[in-house]
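In this supplementary section we document a worked example of the pipeline. Step one takes a protein sequence of length 702 as its only input; no multiple sequence alignment statistics are reported here. Step two produces a three-dimensional model, which step three serialises into structure tokens for compact storage. The input and output of this example are shown verbatim.
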Amino acid sequence: MTKSFAPTAALPRPPLPEQRPLRDTRHGRERQDPYAWLRAANWQDVFKDTGLLDPAIRAHLEAENDYQKAVMTGTEALRETLVREMRGRIKEDDSSVPAPDGPYAYGIAYQAGAEHPRFVRIPREGGEAQTLLDAEKEAADRPYFSLGGASHSGDHRWLAWAYDDKGSEFYTLKVRDLESGEDLPDVVEDTGGGGVWSARSGGFFYTRLDSNHRPSRVFFHRLGDGPANDALIYEETDAGFFMGVGKTQSDEFVVIDIHDHETSECWLIPSANPAAEPRLLAERETGVEYDVDEANGILYIRTNADGAHDYKLVTAPVDAIGRGEWADFVPHEDGRLILDHFVLKNHLVWLERRDGLPRIVVKRLSDGEEHAVAFEEEAYSLGLSGTYEFDTTAIRFTYSSPTTPSQTFEYDVESRERVLLKTQEVPSGHDPDAYVTRRIFAPAKDGEMVPVTLLYARDTPLDGTAPCLLYGYGSYGITIPASFSSNILSLVDRGFVYAIAHIRGGKDKGFRWYEAGRRRNKANTFTDFIAAADHLVAERFTSYERIVAEGGSAGGMLMGAVANMAPEKFGGIVAVVPFVDVLNTMLDDTLPLTPPEWPEWGNPVLSGEDYEVIASYSPYDNVKAQAYPPTLVLAGLTDPRVTYWEPAKWVARLREMKTDDNPVLLRTNMDSGHAGASGRFSKLEEIAYVYAFALRLMGKAQ
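The serialised model returned by step three reads:
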């Protein structure tokens, strides 16, 4: 497969950082980490000012960037072609369908050529659009710019908006006067990215991040006051929990949501009385999760309490304290996973998944009458958009499939009338009939059947010769939707089969699917992915040497694990911001996500068993002397989720240990974090780079 790249002798020597062994002994087991020095001692400061990075570390990352450029020489024209293709499928002056809220309807709109959107509103009955915020203008002259939340106040006078200009996800929060169009002097630094307005629009609640990037405190900011005077509303002292702030659909309550990956707790504050003491709804209990909405003095709570693994919906009086007054309203059903819910004045609406496919269910509050909204395709994605308003029967939802561009519908929950408001335009053209979407099932080694979603051109030969991009994630209960992606058509149109393996660790087949792919069961995630590759080969969709595997973040950990376990079954590996130094990260409780992640992976600090489980699969710790497929690794210098040194260390160890001449490339974006480039077009260059790597490997770079 390496014949697709320049001969090794013609390439510069790949960077190999010096080894400075660091010994660590835990639970009676000693390890050496030769590349630990790549972790900057001042990483918190680097997140805010990349100029503070240790020169030796910077020199190594830049050497890696130079090397990957040299190896990828010759793909420049292909990448330009791919960017043009993908950009040609984007409607440059696109806009959302404005959503009504009182006298206005709010939405976003893009100008042709703009990387970032404008936030706009129009009079509800029609009229000229008013630009509230032009993110393209705000992003000018910044190497990186990403918008956080942008929320208007209930009186429609103010806009709280946030931005991150380093990729570190420390958001600056500002307030815009929508009458004058000017920002107030009120500027709050180091926030979680958005504000929640009080009912009287006199101020907003927000979360502030500490120096370790943890949202540990909720404040209330009163308009016109200095941030130093902001009132501390709640402080979470347990570093193992995330925290966020939101609001009920009725606008009656602000909700402080505290959670890790298996336990949650909510505190309620009357929206009209920001000074009120937060009231605990139900104390956190390990393994019990819940979230809440409110209507007409009744709380509607989604929870897994009482063994409801796939969740149920319960009600409680608005002044209830504890779970004693919770009463089942939508009982638990095995195999029906309730994903989300909200309440209108007269209807309860929720999104559920049965047999791997989503549907929307509506329940009238007055008499309990229920009906469902579903679709007939073999694989599809459904998103519940909701509404700004409470006293309404109109909701929004989106639908797409791998062959069907996204459609936005307005749905009347009472009359059941469905109106198509918008279909995603593909300016360069798209014929759904030219493609095939399928859902197949791969047998896992323990007899479970792993769903795999496929997309390929109708004329693609299914005789084992087609290249395949096999994507996987498999962590945190996250389900990868079978949705439309115009970008992937650039591979599919060149003969690729695109496959998504819905492996254990996600909730594709209910909560049990998640449980069977986490902590001590984590190996199932990896063997499921390998089983998907085996099945694709057995059914002659592709062959092992024609499979390029891709995953990002925790999916990048999946890439590292399967590369260690079965390198011969993949013709290439693409790992995007990969979480590959799992053991070291889970042992370091100073890192932003480590304590909240222990319920997902285990706590190797306290548990010798957890240590051994993580050590058995952590990609960095299991690189061995064997042949590895060609590998492309992408990282972000200011990434607070997967710190840059994880992929850098992993690449170094691969180079040190592997027995082949296949290239291992590390491309670090020195101006961004976990999400990569921020603009809608600048992102395409990164995608084109990945696609060019895959096409070159498969001999389709022409």
